[in-house]
């Protein structure tokens, strides 16, 4: 099953299946790569975007980063079917 | 030829570089600036086991050699030998977080490509162990082809091994220039993952503590409540904890003035020493405890990892005015002083957001405003209670802080719609693990801030106070004429008074705002100087607050308070803004809009208070 990271369930680990780099600015794309985000990397939504907005907290490998909604929407993750 | 080898500490943000730098150099540090930029240069001396000295430089944290902010640019330029005012380092110590090896190794691999002598300090190895990780440092060293030393900087562990390894690499041959670097970091990332997987022997789930705390701290309801409580405790402590030390400084100042009066003959030099230097500088140094308490909290919040969580929580609110949570950290620092606040804005990637943050930072109520606020509130606002545990004086002070914040919000909103219009840079930040702060590192940070403040008090503030005392004392007024009006300073103030009179300012206030251009707190020492020069026998020795209460109306005092919420009266801030924005254009915009706001709001305050019959 594959969907955007923005729609992922909290605390469920998935694997990045694709990233829509075109939806990101060059600076955002560069920072994501510096955070180690790439196809095949393990990610987990630690804290989703709140009802009033604000960033999400996402675990990438062994680090947790803050990402705004549009970035989590550009990341597609594959999660094992329940 | 340089006799002392230069070694640079490099690494990702949150790798513990500064803790390692403090552990290796202790208090033998020098904080300066790289020429042309406001990025601080932290350098210090250490000695190898054979006694050879080393100059160690702590570089700003960065994820790669492709910079996205001015401080990351400095790191890249230093390691490539292209930074003006810095020689090419003889060796690099790359600090990597052992508990986040995959990510930090990527930068190690990119730096290795430079071909410079280097060592990897596998820092926070205790945290990795706590997470259940076992790392084979020898296997890692073999895979990377460079020495790897495990360290726990905050506990000073592994430092002997690091010094021994450093002595080894410095004995080896030194390539003349760094090799070319590759900017596409994806293949470094894949190689880093492969090397990390081979070097990590065990890896169960980790960071349970940080995740557990984050569940509460980042909670949509509990998170903002915790942040508000932290802020409240911080600002309360600034006042409550500083009472006693302020009393000690005032006692020392009084003792010095009395001793000088008792032992020195009555002449020009004695007056200059007592009225100009001891009382003038003393009225500013007295705020050192409050500044140190504020910095204590800021350093503590940074060291524990909470500061980034505060930025996370504030991002929603900040995005509403076209900024991001990143701007929260410089703005919070600006409550202590706008200078480190403006300098902290260099970590903001987006140039427009960074510029907006710089332009609104002077609106945060810095500690230099406290002397002005404290004197006027004490003199004009009655010390009555307006609710359980809430005094009217404290409430007015709180209102002045809020006025500054609202002013900054409005200014940011207008700037982002006009001068700094454009898409924002977003908010992408690493949330580091929580950790116990090293008290020693916090104390070193406080010592550096105290030294900068005292140096300022001993140079700019003392110079301006003495100059004002001279200008306000001469020429000596004939009998029946007020000295503050007859003197050179008085005549200049009379010219300015024409402009400031409509908003309720009197002659003494017009005189005080001129030297206060150097620093806001000088307004207090300037008023003290003017009134002590003018004082008759009955008024001599009377506290400044009592003199103001007797001479000023309430609307006038309120107008003066409103003026200081906005007025950009700080030459150091203007100088830092000029350096940080590479020219005079933006500091001039800042000066014009803040003075215009100060004039308008002081006027509105004065006219409204007068109309209400206050």
From TrEMBL, chain A:
Superkingdom assignment: Bacteria
Keywords: Iron
InterPro entries reported for this sequence: Fe-transptr_FeoA-like (IPR007167), FeoA_core_dom (IPR038157), Transcriptional_repressor_C (IPR008988)
Gene Ontology terms, MF aspect: transition metal ion binding
Ranges where the Ferrous iron transporter FeoA-like domain occurs: 3-79
Protein name as annotated: Iron transporter FeoA
From TrEMBL, chain B:
SUPFAM superfamilies tied to this protein: P-loop containing nucleoside triphosphate hydrolases
Annotated transmembrane regions: 216-239, 276-301, 357-384, 390-415, 453-472, 557-576, 588-609
A Pfam family per the record: Gate
Assigned keywords, A-Z: Cell inner membrane, Cell membrane, GTP-binding, Ion transport, Iron, Iron transport, Membrane, Nucleotide-binding, Transmembrane, Transmembrane helix, Transport
Membrane topology annotation: Multi-pass membrane protein
Keyword Repeat found: no
Domain FeoB-type G: 4-172
Subcellular location: Cell inner membrane
Keyword Phosphoprotein: no
Protein's recorded name: Fe(2+) transporter FeoB
GO CC annotation, single: plasma membrane
